[in-house]
Amino acid sequence: MSDACLAAISKLMRSTADALDCRCAVFYRLDANVLYPVHGHGIESADAYSMPSKGWLAAERGIDAIRVYKDLHRESEPVPALATADRSAPRFMTLVPVICEAGRRLGLLLLADAAPQARLSAAKLYALSTNAIQLARQYQWRSVHESRPNYGWRQPDRLRLLESVVVHSKDAVLITQAVPIDLPGPRIVYCNESFTRTTGYVETEVLGRTPRLLQNENTSRAALDKLRDALEHWQAVEVELLNQRNDGSEFWVELSVVPVADDSGCYTHWISVQRDITERKRAEEVADQARITEAENVALEAKLRERHRIEQSLAYAAFHDDLTHLRNRAYVMDRLQSLVVTNETAPGHASLLFLDMDRFKLVNDSLGHRAGDLLLMQMARRLETCVRADDTLARVGGDEFVVLIEKDPEREAATEVAERIIAAFDKPFRISEQDIYSSASIGIVHIDAHYESPEQLVRDADVAMYAAKQGGAGNYSLFTESMHQAAVETLSLQNDLRQALADKQFSLAYQPIYALGQADCIGVEALARWHHAGRGWVAPDVFVPLAEEIDVIRELGHWVMSQACRQMRSWGSVAADLKLFVNVSAREIRDHRFLDQVDQALTESGLSPLRLQLEITENIFIHDPVHVAQVLEGLRGRGIRVVLDDFGTGYSSLSYLDRYPIDALKIDREFVTRMARAKRTRAIVDSILSLGTALGVDIVAEGIETPDELKLLQKLGCPFGQGFLLAPPMSAADFADQLATG
C-alpha cells in the first residue's frame, strides 16, 4: 500500500478518534481470513496491542478474522465494548466491520481507549458507521486508483454518505452544517423520516433552519450551555433536552451530537440523533415524585414521632420535678382538685402530709447549693421507701415535700407514714464525704368535706407543719381548727404591725435602773410600747418576736434608738449623769448599716456615746460571729458600752464573755424570781456576781418585784437592779417628773 493511501487512512483514523473522544483508531486489513494492523491514529499504542503478551485481538501473525466476525451482531453496525482480563489492555474497545459496496469484507475499524466508557452515543455510532463506510471506499478507491488509471470513479459527497447511513434509522436524525456556532447557528441540511414523525415538521419546514426551532422557554439553559461549549470545542456531547413539536406539545429527547470530518480532517457537518425519552422522563418524574412523597412521609413520620416525644416530655415535665424526678406541685394540686371538687374519694379517706426539712438552709450556706441538691435527691429516694405504693410523693418547692394518702378510711396511714419518715431521717445522709443529719417537720391534714379548694388543704397542712416545728425538729402535728385561727390571728397581727410602723403607733416607756446600795438612779432602759386602736396595748413579748419574723425589727429598732437618744438629750441637766440602755436585736447587729445608724442617732440627738449602753442577747453570736465581733469592737471604739442581756439563759455564755468585749451583764428575771426559794438558783446568782467582780463588769439584776428579792440581792452584793418594785416603766413625762422631784 502506497504512502498516499496510508496517509489518507491515517487522517481518517485521526478524525475518527478525535470526533469520538477515543485514544486510538486503527484499521485492520483482512487478508486470507487473517487481520493485520495497517495504520491509524494512535498507531504507537496499536503496535503495542498487537504484542502476543497483551492477549487480545492479536497474534504474532495477525488476528483470526473468522472468530472476530462471528462475534459481531451485525456486519453493518459496531459491536459494543469488548472486555479483556488483561489489566494492561485498553478498558474500552469497539469494532466496526469495513465492507465494500459489493459486500466483501475489507477489514475492521477498531476504537480503543484507556478510560472506561459505558457506551457510545447514537450519534457516535452513526458517525463511526459513516467513517467505516468512508474507510472502505477510501481504501477501495486508493487501491483501484493506484493499480489502474481513473475512469471517472470518484469519492461520493460527504453529505450523501452521511444520509446513506441514517436514512433508515429509527432514531430522529438531523445533519447540520459545521458552522456557524454563534447565531443564527448551523443550518439543517438533512432530516430523516423518523425526525418528521417525531416532531410533526415536514422536511421543507426544517431545511435551512437551525435546531433552535425545537426549543422553547422551558428548555434547560444549563443543557444548552453544555451543548454550545461542546460545539465550540468540536467535541461530541450528550444532553437531555425538553423540545417542542410543531403543534406546541413538549417532549423529552436524549440528544447526542458528533462532529464529522472530511478526508482532510476538517469538520464539515454535525450529526445529531434524538431519541424520544418522554416516557422514561415521565416514569422518572413519577419515581421522583414517589421518592419525594416517601421522603415527605418519612419526614412527616419523624416529625410526628418528635412531636409525640416532645409532648411526652412536656407532659412529664409539667407534672414532675426536674431535680428529684418526683411528682411536682402542679400534679398534686391537680389531684387535690379532683378529690375536693369531684369527690373521687369518700370524705376523710384521704390525708395530706406537708414536709419541711429542718436546718436545710445550713447545708446550702455551708456546703453549697450543689450539696443541697444532692441532699434533696437522697431525701427523695429515702422518702420513697416510707410511703405506700398507692401514695403520691411530690416535691412542691425548695426543701418542701408532700405525701398524698388515699384509700385510708381508718385515718391511720397518715400518722404511720409520718412516723416512718421521722425514723428514716434518724440515719445520716452522706454528702461530700461527710455525714449530714437532717430531720423533717410534718404537718398532717385530713381531707374532709368542708374543704372547697386545694389551696385550703395545702394551707392547713402548712400551718400544722409550723406547729410541729415549734415542738422541735423531727416532729409531726395533726391540723386542728385552732391552728387555723391562730394562723389567721398571726397574719392579722403582722399586717397591723406593719401598719403601726407606718402610722407611728409606737411609743417609748422608760424604766429606771438603780444602784441597789444607795437607791440612786444610774440609768434608764428605753422600752417600745404598742397601742392598737382595736387591740389595745399589745405586749412586747408578742410584737417583738413577730417584728423579727417579718423582718421589720431593724426599722423598729432604729426608731427606738433615735427616739430614745433625742429624749435623753431633751431631759437636759437633770439627767446628765444617767446612762441610756437600748435593746438591739441580732438582725440589727448583722445589718451592715447598723454602725452608721448608731452614729446618725447620736449626731442628730447630740447625745454623748459615753452615755449609751446597747443590750444584746447571746443568740447574736450564733451566725457570723466574726462580723459580730467587728461590730462590738466598733461600738466600744466609739465609747458605747455593750451589755449582755438575759445572761445565763442561752448557750456557751462563759465562752462569749471570754471572746467578746462585754461591759455589763444582766441577770435574767427567772433567776431573780427563783433564787429566794431555790438554793441552786441562789448559788448561780452568787456565782454570776463573783464572776462579774472578777472580770470587772457591771451586774444588773432584772425583774425585782418583791422586797425579799431586793434584800437578797443587796445581801449578795448585786450592784444594780431594776423592776416593778423599784419603778415600773413610765412615760417620758412621768420620768421627767420623777427626776424633778428627786
Folded structure, characterized:
With 742 residues, this protein is α+β, with helices and mostly antiparallel strands. The protein is built from 25 helices and 26 strands. The protein has an 8-stranded mixed beta barrel, surrounded by 4 helices. A 5-stranded antiparallel beta sheet has the order 3-2-1-5-4. Strands 7-6-10-9-8 form a 5-stranded antiparallel beta sheet, with helices on both faces. The longest helix is centred in the middle third of the chain and has 41 residues, at 278-318. The model is unreliable at 45-89 and 146-156 (pLDDT under 50).
* Shape label: rod-shaped
Query: How many beta-strand segments?
Result: 26
In percent, how helical is the residue content?
40-55%
> What structural class do you assign from the helix and strand content?
alpha+beta
**N- to C-terminal distance:** 161 Å
What is the typical, i.e. mean, pLDDT? 82
Radius of gyration: 57 Å
Strand order of the largest sheet: 18-19-21-22-23-24-25-26
The proportion of residues in beta strands is 15-25%
Low-confidence stretches: 45-89, 146-156
Count of alpha/pi helices: 25
Biggest β-sheet description: 8 strands, mixed, barrel
